[in-house]
Every structure is written in C-alpha cells, then in structure tokens.
Specification:
Blueprint lengths: L1 E7 L20 E6 L2 E5 L4 H9 L6 E5 L23 E6 L7 H8 L15 E6 L5 E4 L4 E8 L5 E8 L2 E6 L10 H7 L4 E5 L4 H5 L15 H11 L3 E5 L7 H14 L3 E3 L5 E3 L2
Parallel strand pairs: 3-4, 4-5, 5-6, 10-11, 11-12, 12-13
Antiparallel strand pairs: 1-2, 1-14, 2-3, 7-8, 8-9, 9-10
Helix pairs in contact: 3-5, 5-6
C-alpha cells in the first residue's frame, strides 16, 4: 500500500463555513501509509480529525514530519488524541527554527496560559528528531525512504519526498517561487508520481493586480508556478495545496481549471481526498 489521505488543505487559518464545505476548512495535515509505516505530514487542525480516526488503531506507531512550525502547521497537535494515550509511540521530525527546536516550539504553544495541558503531560512515548536540508531517513527496514530539501519561506521550511516500491510523492508546501524554477525542488520532485505544491495565490494576487496588496515575500506560490515545477520535474500529477482562507470553493475550482489548461493532470486538494499509488 502507498496511500495519501488529505485531512487539512488550508493555509494561514482555518476557514470553515458553507462557502468552503466542498474543499474543506482545516489547515495542513496529510496522512501517508506506505509499507508498514504511518507517516503524518504537518499538524494543522486537520490533525484532530486524523487523530479521531486513529483511535480505532491503538496502540499505534506513527512518525510525524513537520514542514515548519508556523501556527497553521502545528495548531492541531494539542488536540491529537493519540498523543495522550499511553502505549502509543510517536516520532516527530522537524528542523530547528529561529527560536528553538521542534520540541521547544510544540511545548511552547501548550504552555500556560495558552493551553491547559502541557506537552510533558501527554501520555504517548514521544521522541523528537532534529533534521535539516538533505536529510535521508530509511524506514521499515529500508522499504520506505524519506528525503528532505530546504525551500523558500520566512524562517525556513522543509519539503519531503517519500519513496516506496518505485513510487514517490513530494510534499512541498509553503514555498515562494523566484524568477526561475527552484532547481532544488525540481531535483527533489524528479519523476515523482505526485507533487503536493503550495498554490495559495493566483498570479494576480501574488503581484497585487487583483485589488489586494501584493504578496511578494510572504513565502507562498501560485498554481501556475506549480505547473512549471511539475513540468520541469516530470511529475505525474500535481496537487494544489495550502488554499488561502479567503478562497471559497468556487475560487479554488477556478484556480484548478486554470492550472489544468496547462497541465491536465492537476487537482486541487480537498479534505477527504485519497490517492493510491500502489
């Protein structure tokens, strides 16, 4: 099995409501099952829903990979039910940021008065691993490989490539494109079956031509830049991710349609979407 399940597809802040019900309003969280591994990419508010589902599988062993520790990627962690259950084992991976390690950051958001329960009081056995650019992890006796690459985002961000049985997916959220395609990301995504890519803005929004302030320097990209990366890397399928909170279902569909004009194998991520690679 190599399965990808989307539990949260938004960026910046949760955006629930009738206008976003088709795409979903939870922030970033993606479940990946490959070999004997349960991998979790980011801990946004979608992590709470995943945790409720995983309660039926306890005791469990999970590995969580954080792209970075901005609020929308960690705010679901204090509500991840399996982390409170003794007997569960969770490995957590992330880069040291400008203020501290992953463990210090996750613990900090749970300190009083922000949250009533501290990280140290959660019942699961948790081990934190500091990783960075170019890290390679071999999991499941070598059957699963996880590779990292540093991308362009304020305070830093890691992209992840997960490989299993000649299949590969890449998770590249929260990255800003430059004048040229990011060759580091192209190398990471080369010949991947799936590229999950930050498409928070339209090109017009990015440069400030849509009646809003320009977003240059904010650390995000557009759906058409995602097409460029996917083509350069010979990716099989592009998934637009990290939808802006102000983009309702119709806006996301319109961005998806524009990207499909240039790359038909493009879909906008939606909560509950499942992709089977094996």
């Amino acid at each position: 099995m190599f399965r990808i399940v989307f539990w949260g597809v938004r960026g910046s802040i949760p955006s629930p409501g009738p206008a976003t019900v088709a795409v979903g309003g939870n922030t970033a969280c993606v479940e990946v099952r490959c070999g004997n591994e349960l991998l979790i990419l980011d801990g946004g508010t979608g992590l709470r829903l995943l945790g409720a589902k995983l309660s039926a599988e306890q005791p469990l062993r999970a590995r969580m990979f954080f792209s970075h520790v901005h609020w929308d990627h960690i705010q679901g962690f204090p509500f991840f039910a399996p982390a409170f259950v003794k007997g569960n084992v969770i490995d957590l991976f992330g880069a040291t940021n400008v203020t501290g390690t992953l463990e210090e950051t996750l613990g900090g958001q749970m300190n009083y008065p922000n949250f009533p329960v501290r990280l140290a009081d959660m019942g699961a056995e948790m081990t934190f691993h500091d990783i960075g650019d170019g890290h390679v992890l071999r999991l499941d006796d070598g059957a699963v490989t996880v590779r990292t690459a540093q991308l362009n985002h304020p305070q830093g961000v890691l992209a992840y490539r997960i490989e299993h049985r000649d299949r590969a997916m890449v998770y590249a959220t929260d990255t800003e494109h430059g004048q040229e395609v990011d060759q580091g990301l192209v190398a990471l995504a080369r010949d991947a079956d799936v590229l999950i890519y930050d498409a928070q803005y339209t090109p017009e929004e990015y440069v400030g031509e849509a009646g809003v302030a320009p977003k240059i320097g904010w650390g995000h990209s557009t759906m058409l830049e995602g097409v460029k990366v996917a083509r350069a890397a010979n990716v099989g399928r592009l998934i637009l991710f990290h939808h802006a909170p102000e983009h309702d279902d119709d806006a996301v569909r319109a961005m998806e349609a524009r990207a499909r004009e240039q790359l038909p194998a493009t879909d906008a991520a939606r909560e509950g979407m499942v992709i089977d690679l094996i």
